User: Fold this.
Amino acid sequence: MSEFTFLFRGSDPTAQSPEEMQKSMQKWLAWFKELGEKGHIKYPGHPLERTGKVVRGKQKNVHDGPYAEAKDIVNGFTLIEAKDLPHAVELSKGCPILEVGGSVEVRPIRILDM
Amino acid sequence: MEPSDHLFRREAGRMVATLTRVFGVHNLALAEDVVQDAFCRALEVWKFRGVPENPSAWLLATAKNRALDVLRRQRTAHTFAPELGRLLDSEWTLAPAVEELFAANAIKDDLLRMMFSCCQPRLAEEAQVALILNILCGFSANEIASAFVSSHAAIEKRITRAKKLLATSKRLFDVAVPAEFAARLPAVHRALYLLFNEGYHGASPESAVRAELCHEAMRLAALLLEHPLGAMPTTYALSALMCLNAARLPARVDASGKLTSLFDQDRSLWDRELKVEGIRLLELAATGCELTEYHLEAAIASVHARASRIENTDWASIVSLYDTLILVRPSPVVALNRAIAIAQRDGPERGLEAIDAIEDRDRLASYPFYPAALGELELRRGRHNIARKHFRAALALARNPMERRFLHQRVGACEGADPP
Assistant:
């Protein structure tokens, strides 16, 4: 088994009605439940606030941000266990964010033997 | 755990009603923003952590904290609810005051306050219904438009205008003043009645949508019954009418949106619990000296409910109830229904005569069930050609696909030959 992070990007739910928001939440719950039952969730992860600060350069300049298009901003992550990268990619295809124009970035976590 | 069906939609109404009390009715839009925000929060957190033990409390606490934030940060920029006045000025009194506003009992009254505020006389009835659906039931303009088979733009405009008007009223309706409560109550009854009928007779081909509208009307009527000033005989009658009609809904429209008339319904599909509840409520309605159209319509529905087969219907009672209904609330549609009941009691010829005698019959000119009733009675007399002509006229007047389908099928029923 290897470990992966799923980085969730995009999806802007603000224009949805309460009923639509609940439906979208229930899709996430169903997806997470299935992953969990099959033992793929290493750590459920966290949502991330939409904005924070970006520190850049030798000057250590602090900027508000990130300023990027909504679809490019990471808004949460989860740690996944899967056989290999293709398997992890397959698992990511069930993510409801894909139905609302978002994306899932699947990145293998390098395990460090110290 | 799984959140209950329509949790967000239901909670939206409760939260907006309470937040509007905190912020003042002129800040309705702000209250709606805070609610939207609470849902976004829930969506973010719940999808990673699952639904909390008590999701309603979680949402409410989130909305409350957000409201406190807004009150603290925007105290100088906004004026909030006048009735709370100075309490919101000081940090010492702010948190306890808001806490109290979010207490369970207070929230129940907030829903009523908002319901009565939505039914203000300066708003047309259809605007009142749209507002109730939007604010108290949490339906978006889009969802209301699809339930009413109306355009999104038309509903959006109706809601926006109504909200503007609502926001200009100085404060929410005060449900604690008995005289004012009693004066506004008939308008509230009427709006809930229309809301229910939109589900029962309305245009949406989706049976789930129709049942939802009926359930919302029943839920709000039940809320009225819980208030000492709302638990009036008329409210019981209205609730009885809703239960008794809703009991027939499963047999009236099937999952594919096919309409079945009362005469052909499979009565085993009628909801027994709702029927029993309806009859119980009707008994509670039978006090006081006021006899309203809700009493009479509920009584008519209860006669149908008691008949296990169409042949067992007590048409004599139904005719006499219609005789009274037409005095209490005269309308050509009521007169038409009375004529149909007469036909059941005395035969199609007497029914046709009764239709002929409807004075303001011309007002039924665009009502598809007027020619359809003529068609049914002619069909029963065996005059297939004339019946077919009437059903075709009805078909041309059909207002939605469901009626079209139903009337099309009635045209098809006129296959036989006419008697010589």
Notes: The first helix of chain B runs from residue 7 to 23. The mean pLDDT of chain B is 90. Residues 367 and 397 of chain B are 7 Å apart (CA to CA).
